[in-house]
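Input structure tokens:
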């Protein structure tokens, strides 16, 4: 995915001179100035604001978006007109045009507003956007990350702290350099392309790809045809693994019978996706994988380990390693080529100046090592350092990668041959924590942070790192709402209403007891990670918390549950951290099967929420 559609027209934002004057005045409320500048950027890059309300009466056609919070919820609003509704079109606006007409206090809502001669207003586009105006709303740590001069910058932070925003801003500050932006999903890739404003330009210096597309192009360049068009979607690969176990393996896996997902996670991250301590690749692939898995002897019961080891051996015996783990198989075979400086690079990957990695936690150790080796090889060909910037959060691994910042830093130190004691004081390396939530209002961000409590219930080796975190959205008004639907029909009705909102989404928690296949309109945490929405309904939240507690109890006698507990919490964290305004915690009355299995009734659902 290199460019936008030929019919794509870049956004234009017209700003009334009165607002322009307000933005430049030293006496203006800085929080409102920051929010208006942020809104300009949101329209220029992503063509939307997440919180927009239509006006009625003689102001019908205008929209408003909150700028500040007061005792009654909101005090100041930005009033605007857009070219995608009939009001805007009748006023002469095109679909790619927006007018910021006025900043108004809440008490002046009834005052009639007329749209001025916007063609004479200040005109903002991506091309003429002043870099300083676009940085005014950054937090101190975001600013530090954007303007870091280190060769390697690692950026971490909880959901909503602006990691992706920093990568986009970082890219903007180094225009004219050859850049490659990698992330895990097509949606995030498309968002990056929109942010870059690249519109079918042949001299495009900024390219955005999914991890899958990146691996595909490397495979093609190095004549590894087995990888072509291989599906590496986690859920799809997991279904192939389940089919393999049930229909082909013919093995006893009784210790894992009730937790096939856990078994797949174990093998994916701790056998096929793991690095050995020496970073060597001299053995056969089977020997490499089986040796890696031996490190899990201390973390699994003997019977669990022995059965998992037999599954691994059967995968190789039946030649299923490529089908089940294509990206990991590819990484293993490409790494020696890069180590020996014999890997072939496609032209678009050669002579790179900047490599930006978003959602790095969704790469296994093996894949992360390959990506960093690539950065070093493309650098060697130009005899200069590639600027390497990676962003992520250990607590948002929607794939079983066992990613930790500590392990990735070990890769960096190994390849750079740098001194541990002096690396943080050099220009080689910088690790920055984004500690302020920018996406969600304090009511929501506090709930997100409280949910991290569950990490304390699992083995320390399975926990993500805990970093400092504060809310920075007191100027926003938000809410957390809980509701338990009486039946599936009511639940479906609520989901439809949420999904029909301009920026609403309903997310499944993905728990095993929820028959989500029968409910249309639900998306998974994997599909929405990195994105935000005004209103988010998280479905079966109470059930998820009940199941989590059950898994935590089981983990006291069997260590195998730690990884699935971690994965469940991570998915939950992703889901509840998407909203910018309203988080709806949505349950439905418990069926008898669930109630009997867990000895719970519907009243226990709300109690689990209140405990947080």
């Amino acid at each position: 995915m290199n460019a936008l559609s030929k019919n794509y027209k870049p956004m234009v934002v017209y700003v009334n001179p009165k607002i322009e004057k307000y933005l430049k005045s030293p006496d203006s409320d800085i929080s409102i100035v920051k929010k208006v500048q942020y809104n300009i950027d949101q329209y220029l890059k992503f063509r939307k604001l997440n919180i927009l309300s239509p006006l009625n009466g003689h102001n019908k056609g205008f929209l408003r978006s909150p700028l500040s919070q007061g005792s009654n919820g909101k005090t100041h609003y930005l009033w605007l007109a857009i070219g995608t509704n009939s009001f805007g079109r009748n006023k002469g606006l095109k679909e790619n045009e927006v007018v910021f007409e006025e900043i108004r206090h809440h008490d002046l809502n009834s005052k009639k507003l007329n749209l001025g001669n916007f063609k004479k207003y200040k005109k903002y586009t991506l091309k003429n956007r002043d870099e300083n105006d676009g940085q005014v709303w950054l937090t101190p740590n975001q600013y530090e990350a954007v303007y870091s001069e280190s060769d390697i910058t690692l950026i971490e932070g909880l959901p909503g702290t602006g990691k992706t925003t920093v990568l986009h801003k970082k890219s903007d500050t180094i225009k004219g350099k050859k850049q490659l932006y990698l992330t895990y999903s097509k949606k995030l890739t498309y968002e990056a392309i929109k942010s870059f404003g690249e519109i079918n330009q042949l001299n495009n210096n900024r390219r955005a790809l999914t991890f899958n597309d990146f691996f595909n192009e490397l495979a093609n360049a190095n004549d590894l045809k087995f990888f072509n068009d291989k599906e590496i979607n986690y859920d799809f690969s997991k279904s192939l693994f389940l089919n393999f176990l049930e229909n082909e393996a013919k093995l006893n896996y009784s210790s894992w019978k009730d937790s096939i997902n856990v078994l797949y996670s174990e093998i994916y991250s701790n056998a096929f996706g793991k690095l050995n301590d020496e970073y060597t690749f001299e053995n056969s692939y089977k020997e490499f994988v089986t040796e890696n898995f031996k490190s899990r002897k201390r973390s699994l019961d003997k019977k669990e380990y022995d059965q998992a080891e037999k599954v691994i051996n059967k995968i190789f015996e039946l030649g299923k390693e490529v089908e089940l783990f294509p990206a990991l198989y590819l990484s293993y075979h490409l790494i020696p080529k890069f180590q020996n400086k014999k890997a072939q690079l496609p032209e678009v990957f050669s002579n790179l100046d900047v490599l930006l990695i978003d959602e790095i936690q969704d790469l296994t150790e093996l894949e992360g090592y390959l990506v960093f080796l690539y950065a070093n090889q493309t650098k060697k060909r130009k005899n200069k350092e590639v600027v390497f910037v990676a962003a992520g959060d250990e607590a948002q691994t929607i794939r079983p990668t066992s990613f930790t910042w500590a392990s990735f830093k070990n890769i960096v130190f190994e390849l750079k041959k740098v001194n541990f004691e002096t690396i943080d004081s050099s220009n080689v390396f910088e690790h920055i924590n984004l500690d302020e939530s920018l996406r969600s209002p304090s009511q929501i961000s506090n709930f997100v942070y409280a949910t991290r409590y569950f990490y304390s219930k699992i083995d320390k080796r399975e926990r993500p790192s805990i970093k400092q975190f504060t809310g920075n959205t007191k100027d926003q008004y938000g809410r957390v709402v809980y509701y338990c639907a009486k039946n599936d029909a009511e639940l479906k009705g609520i989901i439809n209403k949420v999904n029909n909102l301009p920026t609403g989404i309903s997310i499944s928690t993905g728990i095993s007891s929820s028959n989500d296949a029968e409910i249309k309109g639900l998306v998974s945490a994997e599909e929405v990670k990195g994105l935000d929405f005004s209103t988010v309904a998280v479905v079966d939240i109470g059930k998820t918390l009940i199941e989590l507690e059950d898994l935590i109890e089981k983990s006291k006698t069997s260590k195998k549950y730690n990884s699935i507990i971690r994965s469940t919490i991570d998915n939950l964290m992703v889901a509840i951290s998407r909203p910018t305004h309203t988080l709806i915690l949505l349950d439905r009355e418990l069926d008898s099967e669930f109630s009997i299995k867990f000895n719970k009734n519907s009243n226990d659902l709300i109690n689990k929420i209140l405990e947080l």
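The mean pLDDT is 84. The longest helix spans residues 30-46.
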